[in-house]
Write a structure and sequence with these properties.
about 425 residues; alpha+beta; 2 domains; 5-stranded mixed sheet; 3-stranded antiparallel sheet; 16 helices; about 45% helix; globular
Length: about 425
């Protein structure tokens, strides 16, 4: 039995998706996923009757989620429509053509007002990570961590939001996520940090494919309700609410299908069809990239704060550059940092002290240093959210993963400290 809190968690939805793996054809897995998703809605019970109550024992939250649950149970037709629309788009791809499927997806996104979902740059203006399995390349050359050069585009593999031969910049929000995505231990990886320039990304459109329904129910609402605010699901000034139920469902179904775990990898990966079609329509509409949750297993991380965003990926589309082997203009939108193997370890306490020193310097400044201060604020929050967590029972920042993160954060803070005036 699930409640509205745990049903929409990514790990729960992943279990539902992987339970369809007895079906070889992806179209049949999608239909089976739709069936068990709707069955889960029918069987969903109140938060007050779920084990989640031990963490979220709040009368106002129970009242809100009960109202949401009642609305869900009367919205099965909308859920059917959301699944059927995307399954039909996949059928268009395998039966008709990519163009027919792409046109159908664009029509669907516009009809359901999903194309307007953008992530504000303040949320991703923080240190992002890229990694490579160590091999015969210069680990001190940041170009080796950027997109695959255009001259060797044949090495660009088939990825979730990009097709073979088309370079794309994938970033992860933590070193832990890098190890998951590359399926390698941190000791075998060379890792670099990239800091987006807030001003340069201010007018960019990053398509938001995050799990906002779960984030709202499990993260935002519990915090707001502790302030004794009287918030009802039937208030239209706070999302989600009764008036947004259709859009919430369509966004959730799209996100879950775009992040469907891969059953078999090959030259054609059926689970990548919808996300790659999404990329094609976003490119047509001049989007800069897309942000989405990782499909990897993070169960060995425990004790992290519910606001932790350690599991997110950001894909930045790489425009073609006819003069350079990599897109130099795109590279110029980031500051980059490397943590070489001979760099000394730093502690969380040392990082926090430097953060406070930067804040102190900024307070005494008459200059607008927002481009530099925003990522420092994001870092302070990240440290707070994961410092008490553990990876396989070891405190996060005492692991090699956590230490690698701290080294790169230290490099970023040194750069910011020398840049603010």
């Amino acid at each position: 039995m699930s409640c509205p809190v745990c049903f929409f968690r990514e790990e729960h939805q992943k279990k539902l998706k992987t339970s369809t793996f007895t079906n070889v054809r992806f179209e049949n897995r999608l239909r089976k996923y739709k069936e068990i998703f709707i069955d889960g809605i029918h069987k969903m019970d109140s938060l007050s009757n779920c084990t989640c109550i031990s963490t979220y024992d709040n009368a106002e939250l129970i009242e809100w989620t009960d109202a949401f649950l009642n609305e869900l149970k009367t919205s099965v037709q909308i859920i059917n429509e959301a699944f059927d629309s995307i399954i039909s788009i996949y059928d268009d791809f395998i039966i008709k053509s990519q163009k027919v499927a792409s046109d159908s997806l664009w029509e669907y996104l516009n009809e359901k007002n999903l194309v307007s979902r953008n992530e504000h740059p303040i949320s991703y203006t923080k240190l992002l990570f890229r990694g490579r399995v160590k091999s015969n390349f210069n680990e001190n050359d940041v170009n080796n961590y950027f997109h695959i050069p255009f001259s060797i585009r044949q090495l660009v593999g088939n990825q979730r939001f990009s097709v073979s031969g088309q370079p794309m910049l994938y970033f992860s929000s933590s070193v832990l996520a890098i190890t998951k995505e590359l399926e390698s231990s941190v000791e075998n990886l060379a890792i670099a940090g990239f800091l987006p320039d807030y001003s340069k990304y201010y007018h960019s459109k990053i398509f938001d494919l995050q799990n906002h329904l779960n984030n709202s129910i499990e993260n935002t609402l519990p915090g707001i309700l502790t302030t004794d605010l009287n918030i009802s699901y039937y208030q239209n000034d706070i999302n989600p609410n009764q008036a947004t139920i259709a859009k919430d469902i369509h966004e959730t179904v799209l996100m879950n299908i775009c992040t469907f775990p891969v059953l078999v990898k090959g030259s054609f990966i059926s689970e990548y069809v919808i996300p790659q079609l999404l990329t094609s329509v976003l490119l047509q509409e001049n989007y800069t990239g897309i942000i989405f949750p990782s499909t990897k297993d993070f169960s060995n991380l425990t004790g992290n704060h519910r606001f932790s965003s350690h599991h997110l990926n950001i894909g930045i589309f790489v425009p073609y550059d006819d003069e350079n082997d990599i897109n130099e203009k795109l590279k110029g939108t980031f500051s980059n940092f490397l943590a070489t193997t001979d760099y000394i370890d730093v502690t969380v306490e040392e990082v926090m002290e430097k953060i406070e020193a930067i804040f102190k310097t900024n307070k005494a400044s008459d200059v607008n240093n927002n481009d530099y201060i925003i990522p420092v604020v994001k870092l302070e929050l990240h440290l707070e959210y994961v410092k008490e967590s553990k990876i396989d029972g070891v405190e996060y920042f005492n692991t090699d993963i956590g230490k690698a993160e701290l080294r790169l954060y230290w490099e970023m803070l040194n750069f910011i400290e020398s840049s603010i005036v």
